[in-house]
Amino acid sequence: MIGQANPLKAAAWMMGAVFGFSLLAVAGRQLALGLDTFEIMTYRSLVGVITVTGIAILTGRRDHIKASALHLHFARNLSHFAGQNLWLFALTLIPLAQLFALEFAYPILVAIGAVLFLGECVNGLRALSFGIGFIGILIVARPFGAGGLSIGLLSAMACALGFAGSALFTKKLTQTANVTLISIMFWLSLMQMGMGLICAGFDGDVAWPSAQNWPWIIVISLSGLGAHMCLTQALSLAPASIVTPIDFLRLPLIAVIGMMFYGEELDVYVFVGAAIIFGANYMNILTESRKKKAGNSH
Q1: Per-residue pLDDT tens over the stretch 66-99
Q2: Is residue 1 assigned to a domain?
Q3: How far apart (Å, rounded) are the C-alpha atoms in residues 229 and 50?
């Protein structure tokens, strides 16, 4: 268990993840015009390996990259690889706000997994906040409306399982495996580059990015790495069931991006749902902060 949980610092790190993941969505939309999801993951991870290795060398932390706890790294990265490919696939099929709203089911799964596998406690009030947040997700996404469950909606829902698994294994790595952020990001990039290359080459046809694609590959790689660094740091500061709901804040941001750059409809349900989700998230953080203050007073 975490000795010194700090929800406010974790929230600050998660804001970095919010902007990183939003930028990643824009870059993914652009790259999907010429590459499939596996190719995007391959080239994105290649840039990631180069970037993380360069950072490790320049900061004198090459010794942080160790071949330890590889089973946990592999499980984390396999979960993330599956979730990310489903996310990139859905990115081209449904509006950005709808995709993000459905993806946000993963904090609920993380909370359940944290209780089952990490020994964290979820009290009645926190469970209520997750339930309220899920109602907000349904208001924004409306998956059972006139359009029914399309392949895009199903992919967006399924990606939540992959991201939940990734978050739980990240927590396990930071708690028990004594690994550093550099190590986590290096193995994330290297393993997913291999996974992407295998899947992309399965049909014997791997497309090489055009000159117009390379800037977007760099953007999607650096924004993804930055977002994951922020997420990992946040997970080291507070329980997984507290940290991950903060990601809800990128829902209204991505809704505005979708309207401004892609002509996607921005209706009142997006803001009503986002307000409910934010309220549930605030309830969760406030409860944890009060519990910490009460513990310090004794």
Answers
A1: 888 899 999 999 999 999 999 999 999 999 988 8
A2: no
A3: 16
